[in-house]
Amino acid sequence: MKNGSVLVSLLKLFGLCIIGWLLWIFIFSAVLPMDEEEIPDIFVRLSVLLGVLTGLVISIGISYSQVARKRNKLEASASNILIVEERETTLLEKANRVVEKYLDHEKEVFMNKNNHITPVSDASQFQRLIEAYPELRSNKNIFELLNQIKDCENTVANFKIGYNSDVEDYNSLINTLPLSLLKRLLKFSEAEYYKKKEVTLELTDDMLGI
Length: 210
What we know:
Layout: H1 3-31, H2 41-102, H3 123-132, H4 134-137, H5 140-174, H6 179-182, H7 205-208
């Protein structure tokens, strides 16, 4: 955690303690008899103690609320990424089926050293194949499939950037005073940056529509 963040956190905590102290001064002033000209020292010291405790409680409450919202946002973002990745996997599977069906007579072009057809793994590879063969270039549905794959890739990339930015914010929050002292008690642990999960889908020709 940066020194600047620590200083800002301490200043916020100090400000909340001052507010808490003034609040208790006001409370004691209101409940003391009117003939008392000054607040007794015992109440002054008590107001300082209670003010510090009040500031800590308010600070913890605010921080906890922020962390809870950020954690819920991370869970929603991870779910959204997974949904788009599953769609991307489905589209790439469909692209590979297209290659198999339209270019069956030229499979040797796609053979690797193990005599397996090199699968289409992203939009740029699929686009190179389309541009290389008239049968594919002339098919509007193929280009629509390409555009859908590109949209998925761009969406996933943007979602990952946003997710990782939220992870950084979340980890910073739980490592900022006062939550940094209580994160074990509150069961807060650092979130990991997003890693792509492998998704395997079995698709039939009827599901693919080809």
